[in-house]
């Protein structure tokens, strides 16, 4: 199912069940697939079942890629069906551990906002901005934009004056309707107005918001480049030596990934990402295609399949984030510094 499928055409319970079955077939993708399943369960109204999936992930023997995100989603869901105390405890835990990913921050701040905890929400957005958006002349990465927009919205609701980060949010926002107008607390009164002009203006604002949401939902899968960690590449080339023409060395492989992504970015290609391959996963993919893993034409197809299963990591990494190559160095000090 595409993420932009109209809601009235979706059987959320059936879609959740399908995603759970798929997670069983692809255990390496279970985190992504079960999070999607939990989202469908929430939309179906079965919030306890969604919590059970979040708990299943949090108690799994395999390590999670983003445990803070799972906890944030669990907290938001719990609060929606009466478990406020537990939700608050989880939210405080997330704020204390201060994850470097903006997504958990946005989820818990919006949970506070939706329950009229505006002061706590703006504090949470602010903590995240201080952590992830240090003052710099560089444009913040796209993943952090929702932090700025959410902070702007709650500050507007509280009647706080604009500051530098509100101005930055205004600059980043590309909708034809400004953030100040979209986040105007008086908008709710427009919906009950008898004035046709006010109603028409509000319809225009709602269309602009809907357009932005649809654009975000309908983005294609990332244009993903395949990355092999050194041990996996060595195993691959021992098993299928003819692929050595594609990968003369691991160092050259890493350099080719960075240069290819930079060329794509310079050409205007959006939504770039990196997927990491494993030999067992690649062999299983080749078998499903009825082909030999030694066939180099399978490599880009394998990368696309991994991206479609939610395995792509956005490129370039965010400010201060570790390099995509797997080293412990920051991206700015690793492959970014080499260019």
Automatic annotation (TrEMBL):
UniProt cross-references to Gene3D superfamilies, sorted A to Z: Tetratricopeptide repeat domain
InterPro entries: TPR-like_helical_dom_sf
Entry protein name: Tetratricopeptide repeat protein
Organism, scientific name: Streptomyces actinomycinicus
């Amino acid at each position: 199912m595409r993420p932009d499928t109209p809601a009235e055409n979706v059987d959320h319970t059936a879609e959740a069940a399908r995603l759970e079955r798929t997670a069983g077939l692809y255990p390496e993708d279970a985190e992504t697939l079960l999070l999607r399943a939990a989202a469908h369960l929430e939309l179906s109204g079965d919030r306890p079942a969604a919590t059970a999936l979040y708990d299943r992930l949090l108690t799994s023997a395999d390590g999670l890629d983003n445990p803070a995100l799972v906890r944030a989603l669990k907290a938001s869901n719990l609060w929606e069906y009466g478990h406020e105390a537990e939700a608050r405890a989880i939210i405080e835990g997330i704020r204390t551990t201060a994850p470097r990913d903006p997504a958990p921050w946005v989820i818990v701040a919006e949970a506070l906002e939706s329950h009229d905890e505006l002061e706590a929400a703006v504090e949470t957005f602010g903590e995240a901005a201080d952590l992830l958006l240090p003052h710099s002349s560089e444009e913040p990465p796209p993943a952090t934009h929702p932090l700025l927009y959410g902070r702007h919205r709650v500050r507007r609701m509280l009647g706080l004056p604009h500051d530098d980060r509100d101005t930055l949010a205004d600059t980043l926002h590309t909708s034809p309707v400004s953030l100040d107008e979209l986040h105007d607390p008086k908008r709710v009164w427009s919906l009950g107005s008898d004035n046709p002009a006010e109603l028409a203006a509000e319809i225009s604002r709602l269309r602009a918001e809907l357009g932005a949401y649809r654009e975000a939902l309908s983005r294609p899968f990332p244009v993903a480049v395949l990355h092999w960690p050194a041990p996996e590449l060595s195993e691959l080339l021992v098993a299928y030596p003819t692929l050595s023409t594609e990968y003369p060395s691991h160092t050259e492989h890493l350099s080719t990934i960075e240069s290819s992504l930079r060329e794509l970015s310079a050409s205007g290609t959006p939504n770039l990402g990196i997927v990491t391959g494993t030999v067992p996963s690649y062999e299983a993919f080749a078998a499903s295609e009825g082909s030999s893993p030694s066939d180099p034409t399978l490599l880009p197809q394998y990368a696309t399949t991994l991206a479609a299963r939610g395995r792509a990591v956005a490129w370039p990494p965010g400010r201060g984030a570790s390099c995509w190559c797997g080293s412990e160095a920051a991206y700015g000090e690793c492959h970014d510094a080499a260019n």
